[in-house]
Design a protein that fits this description.
There is one protein chain. The protein is mainly α. It has one domain. The protein has 3 helices and 2 strands, in the order βαααβ. Strands 1-2 form a two-stranded antiparallel ribbon. It is rod-shaped, with a radius of gyration of 21 Å.
Length: 113
């Protein structure tokens, strides 16, 4: 996706730049950070289960542990993507609600290559 360029005359250039960076960071979010945390959590839980003898030390036990870790990773990545999308629209809505009641018009919000 192309980055957004924000130019609102009711805001100072620094505020436009900050808003632009914030919105673009939400657009570029891939969910990797959250996925990493969930993967590490899944590794910790499966390690704990192996140490407590909840999983057996066979290929089926290892396969089950791998599936659990992959499930955690997928869940974390999905949560990261959804969170970034929610934050993007929440930020955009806050800016629009701040500007619109005062009768200001949006000058330009465009996507550039």
């Amino acid at each position: 996706m192309r980055p957004l360029r924000v130019k609102l005359s009711v805001m100072y250039e620094q505020e436009n730049s900050r808003l632009e960076k914030q919105l673009n960071s939400y657009i570029k979010a891939c969910g990797c950070d959250t996925g990493t945390y969930f993967t590490l959590g899944g590794l910790g839980i499966t390690t704990l289960f192996f140490l407590m003898d909840k999983f057996n030390w066979s290929w089926s036990g290892v396969g089950y542990a791998v599936l659990v870790v992959l499930g955690f990773a997928f869940t974390g990545k999905t949560i990261g993507l959804i969170t970034a999308r929610i934050l993007f629209f929440r930020t955009l809505r806050q800016v629009l609600n701040t500007i619109q009641p005062e009768g200001f018009m949006i000058d330009e919000i465009t996507a550039h290559p």
